[in-house]
User: What shape does this take?
Amino acid sequence: MFTIKGKGLVTLTGLTIGGLAILLMWAGNPKNMGLCIACFLRDIAGALGLHSAAPVQYVRPEIIGIVLGAFAAALATGSYRAMGGSSALTRFALGFIGMIGFLVFLGCPLRMLLRMSAGDLNAWLALPGFAAGIAVGVWFINRGFTLGKATRQNNAHGYVFPAMMVTLLALLVVNFPLLRASAEGPGSMHAPLLLSLGAGLLAGVLAQRARFCLVGPIRDLIMFRDPYLMFGMAGLFLAALAGNLIIGNFNLGFAGQPIAHSDGLWNFLGMALAGLCFTLVAGCPLRQLVSASEGNTDSAVTILGVLVGAAFAHNFGLAASPAGASVNGQYAVVAGLILTLGIGFALSGARALAKGRVTESA
Assistant: This one.
């Protein structure tokens, strides 16, 4: 039986996710935001009433589909395994802080690639910031940074996160009156429910099987000189570039880009902060969703941190807008960098100190 593995599978996953993002955008999702994990989690936080920013409130079926698709794939292939108990509070904090970086840039690494493929030069400026943040994270890892070792748990613990998504889908389908939905703005722009859910399911299955991630390619290239995951990143970009050219959505430049701003410094620093945070938690938001679906309750806690971070960012004016990064957002990015660097030093220095004591006693 013919199967696709290795570079072929990760490349196919990238091509498929890039193509799905363009399809969803063509079918109604916001321009240059066909599939953005950070933005869509932010919209879900708004739909649940965690923030009051009316233009960004909607239960995004794509997120639900990714989780359920990855969960089904993990069960079907025997790779589901409930694990957890590894620095949950620190992971929550890193997800929270990293989300602020994403919302100052206005997008996760997946949306960064989608914006790049549509000619948004602001996203091209954010890419080196993202890489710089990952590089600093790798430096901490090489110094011995660790969030500890997760332990095996009862499988039922891992079922909670997918069950939450099933519940959210049910509330969306019955049009539960307490869910909020934007009447205008990005939250009001969405593809049909079944298409969005189906796209998410397919993306979740492929991402689970390929272990797809958008932090991993740069991290592995720096740490191991291993370009394996880069094939997925390149596939996503090329599929999205071709799609944008076909539907006439390519617009090269800095100004006038959809749901974006041209403040280069804060695009760079926002993604640097996010890159650092998500390197320390070992995976981009998409990878965290998939990992949580495979039974990793620590990843589920990271996603909860992202949701709360999104709510905090919009409730306190930290998120950027097309006018640029707010003053509050700028302060938050600087504070986030200081806090995350502190976490990095604290959780790598302790191990280095322990090694030194062992050497001295020997």
The chain has 14 helices and two strands. The two ends are 55 Å apart (CA to CA). The CA atoms of residues 117 and 242 lie 8 Å apart.
